[in-house]
Structure formats: structure tokens, C-alpha cells
Amino acid sequence: MKTIHIYTNGRLEEKRGDIVREFPLVLQVNGREIATLIASPHDLRFLVAGFLRNQGFVESAADFHMLAVCDEFGIANVRIRQELPERLKPVLTSGCGTGITFTLETGGREAAVAPSPAVAPEAVFRLMEELARQADNYRNHGGIHSAAVGDGEGNLLLFAEDIGRHNTLDRIAGEALLKGIDLAGRILVTSGRVSTEMASKCARLGIALVASRTSATDMAATLCHEAGICLLGYVRGGKFTVYTHSDRLLVPEQAAASLPGPVPRGRIPGVTGVILAGGQSSRMGSNKALLPYRGGRFIESIHRQLSEYFDEVIVVTNTPEQYEFLPCRKVTDIHEGMGALAGIHAGLHHSSNPAAFVVACDMPYLNGDLIRHLASMADPGGVLIPESPTGLEPLHAVYGKGCLAAIEATLLSGQRRIVSFFGRTNVNRVNVAQIAAFDPEFNSFRNINTPTDYYRLREIERGEALPAPADERAGASA
Fold it and tell me: How is the chain split into domains, by residue range?
């Protein structure tokens, strides 16, 4: 920790904080000094092994006769099986701090990546979200790039961070080499720009899909096209740009075309939509779920929207006879009189899927892109809950069947607040910044509790008013 000063509103405030470290590492191979790597000072063996692998100097862990790193003096002493070329022609790359490579390829000189199964966009989003969760340094004080490799389902296999984005890929390549992990056909996600040296290294490793939160260069796109790599940029907010090989993406239309019989478009597999309709509506004075809205009743609009996203929709209500007009299953609380937590428990208990997206029946501003994003990251073993400027949003969250026992124990202990069971299960939060990428005004979490709320909604529908500011919304108790 060092003393730093933060400038805010005309004042300097002294604080203790971290500063990103740079570490120069002299690389000696077979007695020759070939480069000085500027990197972050952790896991340097992986960095060295990956650098040499991506330069084509080694192909397996058996090619190393010696791999020693002296942190005190900043020297890596390596002996490898093959001899180095007599003359090495270094190329200064566009990496952070200027990287170096001896084997920069452009065009089709790299071997084409072997064909692999198409990847669903949800897998890319899932892995990118996992990258964000892992990248603690990047969030805490900036200046750190991160990268991760996952399988075709978006499951994280390897993660690395470094001051240089090219170093993150070297670290992943080295760790995979020393641990015997095959990278062929995998997905790589990165926080930094994809430039030529990054694309060349991915081609050498057999990576099938590369995705960045930012951009890609034209030369990188050319190399990826020739190598058969699907290249994506600007992966954020449920969207991305495809630069090469869009045929390697499994979009809903393609999935439907490849399966026998009709398949609903855009449905999210493995997740049930649950509408909670068990509130007392005391502030409204009548059942708000049955208020007139858009030519029908309030709950019909929410049911219609969820039916576009989920194969199964369930309404949780202790008065199922009032909702006979809805073409879906109606279930009652197993633990009556225990509020919204009992409703979540009942919906999850009766769900045919391993997870459920739960929403209250009085939320008219649902955002489809945000719902798809949250549902794509569903954790069957726990809770995925979004955050808004006013706190957690448990009535617009995804619950896995793995937390049923925790909810049951909480209800039996007499606790009614939804967050009461969070300490007994796995809870993943989707922070405010991520939510704002989909819904900058956080309208998704607004609900209708009073006649004033309802009349304002009707005025908004007629274009006569705007939604209330976020700090005025009346959220449900967590």
C-alpha cells in the first residue's frame, strides 16, 4: 500500500492505495539473452513458458530441460531441447508498453484452426461475465488486463491478468502447457484490444473463438479469417460485433434449423419464468395484477412477455381461481403466510427446470435483453441477483434449485425476508454497472403499488408523462 491523493471537487484527499506493479524479467534461453519481458510480478513461470510456446520454440513441457525464475534479480534462466535460430528478428508489437515477438504471422501462414462445434452466444456472455468476476485487480485500481479460456459451454478453465494484454495470453498458454490442458477448440475472452500478435498466438494455440470487450484491428481480423477463428469485439450489454466466421456461432435460428420439428424462437433453455401474484395489494386497494392494461389485465402483459423467453411459465398465487384465464400452471405457497420468500420457494419447487427467473406481478417495464442476460448466467446451485442504485433486486432475480434447502430452512425458522437465506447458499451479484449497460434508467425494477403509480403508468403509455426517477420507485422489501 502506498500513499496516494484523490482529487475530487477541488480538494486533494490523502489515501492509502495500491499501484499496479511493473516487473522487468530478463529472459535467457540456452545461455543467450533474447528479451526483457515487462510484466506483472506473479506466476512468472507460466509467462515464460507461454512466451516460448507462442514463439514456436517449445511445443510441450518435455521440451524444457530447465525453467528457473529468480524473482530477486529478475532473471529467467531456461534451457530447451531445440537450438534457437542464429538470428532472431524482433518485432515490436502494439501490446501495452510495446510487446515483442519473433514469429509474427499475417495472412494465412498459420495453420488453420481445426473445425469445432458452433458456440452459442450465451456461452460467450457467460465466460465474459466470469472474466469480470475474476479480474479483481482490474476493478480495484485499473491498469491490469485480463484474459480467460473456457469450453464451448462458457465454463472457465484458465484465467490470467497482467499489465500487458499480450502477456495474459502467454500466461494462459504457459499454464496450459505445464498442466497438460488442451486449448484446441476453446473460447478465449480478453479485456483488451485484439491485435495481430494476439490473433497469431490464438491461431498457434488452436483457439476457435476470440472475444474482446473492446475492438479488434484489421490485420487481426484478416489473420483470424485465414485461420478459421471466429473473432468478436465489443462484447457488452448482450451484444457484440462479429468480424470473422459468423458461421461458428449457434444463434437461435440456426439451432432451430438443425433440430427436427418446430422449435420456439428465442426461448432460454433450463430456466422457468415465475410470476409472483400473492401480494395483498393493500396500498392499491384492489388486486393490481387484474388492473386493466394494454387491452387485457396487468398480469397478462407480464405473462405474455415471459412466454417469449421461457418454455415454462408458472404463476404463484393462493387464489388460482382468479387467474384461470392465463394459459399456464398456477401453484400455491407450500408455506402460507410467509410472503414473497414463500412464493419464490413454491415457484422453484414446482419448476421443471434447474433454475427459475422470478419477477413480481407489478413490474411493467421488463427489459427483454436484461432478462436474457441474467437467465443465461443462471446458477442451478444458488442465486444470481442484480443490483440497482437502491440495493439488491430479489424480485427480478434468478434462483437455482440448489438453494431450495436453504430457503426451506429459513422459512421454518420463521424468517420472511428474501435475503435471510443468502448466507446459506451461493450468491452471485450482477453489479450496477453491468445492469446499466442494458437498462441505464433501471426501469426494470420499478413496480406499481399505489393508484398514483398506476395512473402515472397509464399516462406514460399515452405519452403524457415520463417514468418516475429511480429514487422514487417503491421497491418490495428484500
Answer: 23-101, 121-253, 271-472
- Cα 371 from chain centroid (whole Å): 13
Q: pLDDT digits over 288-313, tens only?
A: 778 776 667 778 888 988 998 999 99
Does residue 330 have a known ligand-binding role?
no
Give dist(CA 398, CA 27) in Å, integer: 48
The answer to whether 369 is annotated as binding is no
pLDDT tens digits, one per residue of 242-254: 888 888 888 755 4
Residue with more model confidence, 216 or 255: 216
Q: Which of 357, 353, 339, 359 is nearest to 420 (CA)?
A: 339
Distance (Å, whole) CA 312 – CA 329: 9
Where do the H-state alpha helices sit in 415-465?
432-438, 451-461
Into which CATH architecture does domain 121-253 fall?
Answer: 3-Layer(aba) Sandwich (3.40)
277 is in an annotated binding site: yes
Ligand-binding annotation for 362, yes or no, is yes
Catalytic residue list contains 202 = no
Helix, strand, or coil (residue 434): helix
Burial class (CB in 10 A: 0-12, 13-18, 19+), 3: exposed
Alpha-carbon gap, residue 409 to 306, rounded angstroms: 29
CATH code given to domain 271-472: 3.90.550.10
* 63 is known to lie in a ligand binding site: no
d(CA 292, CA 457): 11
**Whether the predicted model's global pTM rises above the 0.85 cut:** no
- Determine the topology of domain 23-101 in CATH: Ubiquitin-like (UB roll) (3.10.20)
Query: Is residue 110's pLDDT more than 80?
Result: no
Picking from 439, 308, 453, 425, the residue whose alpha carbon sits closest to that of residue 386 is: 439
Active-site annotation holder among 96, 202, 224, 230: 96
Confidence tier at 10 by pLDDT (50, 70, 90): low
Cα angle for residues 101, 156, 380 (degrees, 5° grid):
165
